[in-house]
């Protein structure tokens, strides 16, 4: 039995366990739509912690975090900063969103926006933006799984087959078990990822340099620019700071975050989860060690793709035995699949409920809606798989764009939660102005001062929103129009 | 007496003024955010002194992650008077 086969066997065994756990959870959340979508609103703190945490550990985090530390150095601390700041938004918005959801029966972001602003088009708009942002995100997970399989098995499992395998497992358990399936598998996957990340993060510096402290001592001599800002690639303070702000405060606008708010059994549970949320950032620390190790090892001949630094170190430099490679592959796949499961589930619910449910499928019963949601999970996963086969590299760009767009929903959501006087026309005009100016700066003129373009989009958003609000009030029409 | 009871006892006996509570929470969040971006991180932007083998800037982020967690934990345990998030 050669090495590639041992790696493949271990990984297939792991996929089998995940599938078994996911299917076993079937039916625990009740059989109605509320059960499938929001776990019957009785998801406790432990499982909710892992569901939210699984979104943190995506394929991008597992491969991209070391990639950033290797390529840029200190600017990779941006990941620690934004992750630990995300719970601020959960703390502030979460309990209010959860309470409104229970009271009015909301299941999606669009539900809340459409109902609060009494505007069906606004709900559809939010739904379309959500699905458009989620599908590329899902594609990155699928492509990540394919790349991992291909690299770790030396091509025994090719890209297309690896991607297909991982996402058949995900689609199968999300299709059958809904959110309960995601919760239980994420419990397994979360533990797997944490164990693998810490093992590799400590073993690689130990193996190559005799320890983490010794590694940083050598970096200080050989590549000190990696250890302080602006880092090895001269990233400015402006970009670093604004990227943290956009990611930290826009992160909670993702539809999958929002829907997990509804699934909490109380606002208290959400706050408890957000208290522990900064600790997720600690889990990424060993992945940064791996990237810094790569900065020393590959100093002479830089890698063509920085995101492969973890794979290269494990496979070629450290020469771990095949069972370690198999476990590493399982851990990284766990990261891709658990995030993928959440994304597929959310995209399907948003598509059926916010976009189709208010237009084409308006008079369809609950049973048909659940069925449509399930089939959408398969359809959207398939679309993402198709996109992954085309060109995985350029999708990171699409994701960054989606991020800048999704942030533009923030004023609208804050208005629905905290500012009852905000008019729907102002909210919509602001969101459109923000999105357009973001796209123009991102793809046309370039962002002023080198800041993250999402910040300028947000400023335009708020300016237009404020202007419309003032004009409408002046005409005395604000209340009449509502 | 369980920990849970002690927390409830403390809450009933000595609820914190709601305005003060909000100010403290907002202040904590603002402080932690500014510490991690410009200009807060500017003062920590150096390698020496290393802490537990980590460069100072790295250790700075590790430290503020802990501060954020501890503050939020305190805010969770000490509830404001008339809190309605249950």
Automatic annotation (TrEMBL), chain A:
One of its GO terms (biological process) is sodium ion transport. One of its GO terms (molecular function) is symporter activity. It is found in: Cell membrane. It comes from the Bacteria. It comes from Halomonas caseinilytica. One of its GO terms (cellular component) is plasma membrane. Belongs to the sodium:solute symporter (SSF) (TC 2.A.21) family. This is Solute:Na+ symporter, SSS family. Pfam families: SSF. Gene3D superfamilies: Sodium/glucose cotransporter. Keywords: Cell membrane, Ion transport, Membrane, Sodium, Sodium transport, Symport, Transmembrane, Transmembrane helix, Transport.
